[in-house]
Amino acid sequence: MNDDAVLVAVGPRLRDLRRRAGLTLTTLSQRTGIPVSTLSRLESGQRRPGLELLLPLARAYRMTLDDLVGAPAGADPRVFPRPVRREGLTIIPLARKPGGLQAFKQILPAGPDVEPEPRTHPGYHWLYVLNGRLRVVLGDKDLVLGPGEVAEFDTHLPHWFGNAGDHAAEFLSIVGPQGERFRLRARYLPASLP
């Protein structure tokens, strides 16, 4: 990806970051000191981003400039995840690509029972439990998943996750836009008959 392509993609990337963070333009303006009109023009691609705008945005989102603008990675194929902690939950991003399918490892510490607060948002979610017991509330269903168990659902369905055990619950999440589902393709090879 050349420099012009990276710069063209910055606006939609900034809009996506703000929306995923649940921020309004006004709130982001207050956090960064950048006027709402400038933020709007950045997100719509009507203004090219400069360091004087990108630095406060990187601080607000707690990410590097490279991650903020989606700069192309060098020849090193490794992903260097930077964990994010929210209300006790640790989220480790496993992919760098904005939009499309996003992969995360999530760790919920053991703790007191918490009253579920189901939420909705556009998209599709697939999760796989690695360790522990994960309580998953999907609409009117209240499930407990153990290691190796999988759930997938449309995120318009009210949903909530919590720890259902005495140890940390670790799970993988793949989240995609509405209508995009995770697919697993396997080839069946019949066993040889004697």
From TrEMBL:
The keyword Kinase does not apply. Residues 14-68 form the HTH cro/C1-type domain. Keywords: DNA-binding. Pfam families: Cupin_2, HTH_31. It comes from the Bacteria. This is XRE family transcriptional regulator. It comes from Amycolatopsis dongchuanensis. The lineage of its organism: Bacteria, Bacillati, Actinomycetota, Actinomycetes, Pseudonocardiales.
